[in-house]
Amino acid sequence: MRYRVLGTLELRDGGEWASLGPAKWRMLLAVLLCHANRTVPTERLMDELWGEEGRPQSAGKLLQTYVSRLRQALGDESGDVLITDKQGYKAHGYRLVVEAAEFDAHRFEQLVEEGRRGLDRGAPEAAAERLREALALWRGSPFQDVPPTPAVEAETARLEECRLEALDARVEADLRCGRHASVLGELETLTAEYPFREDLRGRQMLALYRSGRQADALAAYRDLRRALAEELGVEPTPALQRLHQRILAADETLMPPPPDRTEEGAPPGGWGSPSAAPRPAPRGPQQLPPASPAFTGRHSEVAVIRTLVEERDDLVAESGEGGAGGRPVVIAAIDGTGGVGKSSLVIHAAHQLADRFPDGQLYVDLHGATAGLTALDPGEVLGRFLRALGVDGSSVPSDTDEAAAQFRSLAAGRRLLVILDNAASVEQIRPLLPAGPGCSALVTSREMLTTLEGATHLHLDILPRDQAVALLERIVGAERVGAEPEEAEAITRLCGGLPLALRIAGARLAARPNRPLRSLVAKLTDARGRLDELSFGDLAVRTSFQVSYDAFREGRRSDDQDAARAFRLLSALPGPDVSLPVASALLGLSESRAESALERLVDAQLLESPDSIRYHMHDLLGLFASERAEQEDSESERSSAVTRALSCYVATAQQAVALLDPLRPWPRHAVEGAVVPLRDGPEAETWLKSELRNLLAAVTHSADQPEPVARLGMWLAQCLQWFLYPRAHTQDLRTINELAMRTARRLGDLEGEAWALDHLAGACWLEHSYEDMRECLESALEIWRELGHREGELRSLCNLADALCELELHEEAIEMQERHLALARETGDRAAEVVGLGNLGRAHRGLGRSEEALTCFKESLEGARRTGNIHHQGFALYEMGITYMEQGRFPEGRTHLDQGLPVWKQAGTYESWRGHTWSGLFPAFMTLDVRPGPR
Q1: Which of 899, 897, 895, 852 is closest to 879 using CA atoms?
Q2: Do 316 and 260 meet the contact criterion of CB atoms below 8 Å apart?
Q3: What is the separation of C-alpha 819 from the centre of its chain, rounded to a whole number of angstroms?
Q4: Residues 508 and 348 sit within 8 Å (Cβ to Cβ)
Q5: pLDDT digit string, tens, across residues 837-862
């Protein structure tokens, strides 16, 4: 089967190209093609087809029907092309197997890659031929007749960008072949359509110059420079400026080489040189933060980083594909004082190099010097990287060494750029380094990482005077700086040449366009601020911070003191950012009063709020704020503020989990204080997702704190169990429950320890570490029995029976489950009895005792109906149906599974189990030769 998406979506199996039928079928095939040869989870497919809000109750069933119809269209009755990936009986996702030659988008990228290789090795004619062949595959906009879905829209944008890059590369190849006159008309159209693409404008300038039209080439540059200044407030890139100067000087080396020689003599890095040829468009994760539009200077440092990568690429090209084996990965380690611009430098350089890493760019802030946050654990970071590279969350190893090995295996043979920002130590980053010769890593740290083997070290110092003035000019505008040149020089001098201080000063001026520069100079002239500004190290940016902070401390407005106090206390709250309701709780103020204080801080650049919903404090500002808090606020006041914020987290998290899973029994605690109001499950899930990093940071922070903060953190971990577990956040589960267990033992809280052990067993379940799970539950049982806590004992007994089943110790599981049932009946806990009967049936079925299993399931079903437990009615019907299927009694199996489907539509049940039940029905449909009815 062949597929075309570079235009309308079409497929062909030996005959004519044909379109697919209904829109939903086209959407399904399009999404699968966007993720060709990768499993797309069923939940993701349903989101793509219907969106989170518009999904019908029958979405899972409809998806199964569409998959069936698509298989018929593909002639794939055996399911070998459109593969179902299962977890047990449940369809976990679908994977479309596609060969590169069968898919025009893959063939396009293959031809473009061949063309770029031709440019790299100095064969422009071959490159131009391959690139023309690639561009000829396009028949219109990608997925032209497919209704938009998130995946289709993203892939369309990516392919359009790839096409533009391919056009640019083909023009470059034609220029190297001396066809400058023939590309002029095309370049005029392209530069009009994409006026800010400087690579295209550079090629236009070069083609005009080579055609004897030097004046027109210079005019093209002036037009671009004027447009950039008026629309974006920036200057052309240094490379384009250099080309302009060479054209201005009538540089003869810009003319094409004679026909009998290639471009080896062309200047490196300029238009027309092999080293400037476009690279493949990115295909993997693209996690780079946006580059700062105000980035200025650092030319030599950027050149060093680019040279490291480009020289390695040249070595790879010279030695052929795979010939770089054994060469070390390129590592650049940048160190310098806080605020000196390390992160801005590597992000700027990474964007320039991104097209050399078509398999993706990974980025992480390691929080090595982040106020209120512990440096990220390498295992957590590896989990993020592996998931970004397509590894399912449940398959990420919990052991750091194993995860590092898996990451290195995935990186081998790929071209990946890894940015490790804000590192704490060599030990933290060593497991995060790729080993493949096509990979590079850029690392930033406040300290020089001298023991990092194979690294090239760069020390970043303050900006020279001219670059500091240029940075201020980029932010506030050339006109204002030109009108007050002495004041601009004074600001750069008082800011010590540190980019962070200059950005804060410049942003304040930009926000007040009618205010003269001399007004800021007057503030910065404060003696204490000036002395601090002239020092180095961590104190180097204090002048700018202190001036802004003193303006609040000494101000007369009613909200000045609120803002100063907010600035100090925010530093005590763990987590990368804070929402307004939580900040209100932290400060003990109404939301309107808290918002007024926070917005004052945003105006002063002491806080960032890109979306006006959440507030973030820069690392160095956080350190400074913490200093002020320690000097001006008592320990009791700071502890009370954190207690109020954590109480808000706990109360709201408990509310959110109860909305998401109202039938789940779990420990709830009475917490006084503010709570974020949530109306329903979707709001609850949105809140938990948006706050998750803060909640996890709060658990980590509280583990070593005294009461009541420590206990609140333990309660928060108990609550997060029921959000993280269904989503297979295995590493987070293990971390928070280990911390909760440590806290409980420190506080002497036996019940808290037992809950932590029981919940830690859930992490072991996800890791398939069933022996560890058994050990946790046996320890929990000892505590429950010591406390006489029957509810906890019942839960751990039931979970222990599950662990024994997974260990195939079915006889022991039956014994354990019978003890559970005896205790449930002794205490009159009918709900526990219902669960226990179902689990006992599973153990019997594991031993092949189908009739005994069916008896247990029937009793569980009857008990669930008596107690009104809708959830376990569905479980019992499902288990009975599957057991009948295993006996070959397909009509009975279908009857029970059919009865179970409506159960999962009711409130308070897990809708995902409808997918389990529907998957279980397919053997009956195949055997009985019937079609599935409405779902």
Answers
A1: 897
A2: no
A3: 45
A4: no
A5: 998 998 998 899 999 999 999 999 99
For 579, the token pair is 């929402």
pLDDT of 327: 59
Average pLDDT value for residue range 874-886: 85
386-434 confidence digits (pLDDT tens): 998 888 878 889 899 999 999 999 988 888 999 999 898 899 999 999 9
Integer Cα distance of 346 and 356 in angstroms: 15
The answer to whether the CB of 211 falls within 8 A of the CB of 227 is no
Highest mean pLDDT of the ranges 359-363, 456-460, 608-612: 359-363
Nearest to 693 by CA among 738, 729, 648: 729
Q: Is the pLDDT of residue 609 over 70?
A: yes
**3-state SS assignment for residue 329:** coil
What average pLDDT does this structure show over 810-834? Answer: 90
Half-sphere exposure of 181 (CA within 13 A, CB side): 2
The whole-angstrom separation of Cα 608 and Cα 576 is 11
At CB < 8 A and 24+ separation, what contacts does 594-597 make?
594/562, 594/566, 596/559, 596/562, 597/559, 597/562, 597/563, 597/565, 597/566
Q: What DSSP state is assigned to residue 107?
A: H
Measured N-to-C along each axis, helices 681-702 and 730-747 cross at an angle, to the nearest 10 degrees, of: 50
| b/e per residue 603-636 (b: at least 16 CB within 10 A) | ebbbbeeeeeebbebbbbbbbbbbbbbeeebeee
| Buried-exposed string 224-240: b where 16+ CB fall within 10 A, e elsewhere | bbeebeeeebebbeebb
Radius of gyration of the chain (CA): 32
Given this model, what pLDDT does residue 50 score? Answer: 87
**ω into 708 cis (within 30 of 0):** yes
Taking CA atoms, 328 is separated from 331, 385, 713, 888, in Å, by 9, 21, 44, 59
Hey, what are 169's tokens? 């590369």
pLDDT at res. 647: 96
Q: Lowest-pLDDT range, 151-165, 315-329, 352-366? A: 315-329
Tokens of 826: 């002794």
Task: Identify the sign of the CA torsion 409, 413, 416, 422.
Answer: positive
DSSP string, 602-624: HHTTSSB-TTSSEEB--HHHHHH
- Contact by Cβ (8 Å): 906, 870: yes
Q: Enumerate the H helices of 147-237 as residue ranges.
A: 150-176, 180-193, 198-210, 214-231
| pLDDT higher than threshold 80 for residue 666 | no
765, 758, 696: which is closest to 732 by C-alpha? 696
For residue 846, give every residue at least 6 positions away whose Cβ sits within 8 Å of its Cβ, in sequence order, or none: 805, 808, 810, 813
491, amino acid identity: I
* Position 219, amino acid: A
Strands 18-19 and 10-12: antiparallel
User: Over 265-293, what HEC string results?
Assistant: HCCCCCCCCHHHCCCCCCCCCECCCCCCC
Identify the CA nearest to 168 among candidates 140, 127, 133, 199.
Answer: 199
Give the helix/strand (H/E) hosting 579.
strand 578-579
Tens-digit pLDDT profile for residues 499-542: 878 887 887 788 778 888 988 888 777 544 444 443 333 333 56
Q: How far apart are CA 127 and CA 509, in angstroms?
A: 50
Report how far apart the first and last C-alpha atoms of the chain are (Å, whole number): 30
